What does this fold into?
Amino acid sequence: MYFWLEDEIKGYYKRKHLPHYDNDKVFQFITYRLFDSVPKNLLYKWMDQLEMDGNIEKGSEKYIALERKIHLYEDSGYGECYLKNPLIYNIVKEAFEQFDQVTYELVDWVIMPNHVHVLISPKLGYSLPKIVQSWKSYTAREANKVLGRQCPFWMKDYFDRYIRSEEHLHNVIAYIEKNRVSIR
It folds into this structure.
């Protein structure tokens, strides 16, 4: 895995259908999933329905409702659930831990059967998209070696939410812990 300093941290931006917030001064709660955990056609259908009602703004009621709908669907265990494999689980876990205190502070994380939740605070000058891309590209390559395949491993995009308050931080940590307990 590799990281590099960004020339510019983006702030708010939109990629495909999803809004993102890149800021190296805040905690970020990130969720990304295996390529088959939520069928793309269903995901895009939900997003298109929301966009027909108006632009999706991060933090809006519509955006939060979409996140909840997706989280409920992915928690149902749809797809191959490759992250149940102990070898693949360890690849992902070690990727999170490798650059802790170097490019980000790793606050908490959980690896579910078909998706992950990670809470980090990027270090000064390191962008969230580059951090997530590094995790995803490295773990996809290594997991596909274990599986003996050369197919997509992760969905292309990810959900991120910056932490707005101490209460929000505690709620996210509690959410991660709840998910950790649910898979034991």
Notes: Helices lie at 40-52, 61-75, 86-98, 128-147, 166-182. Residues 128-147 form the longest helix (20 residues). The radius of gyration is 16 Å. Residues 18-182 form a domain with the Alpha-Beta Plaits fold (CATH 3.30.70.1290).
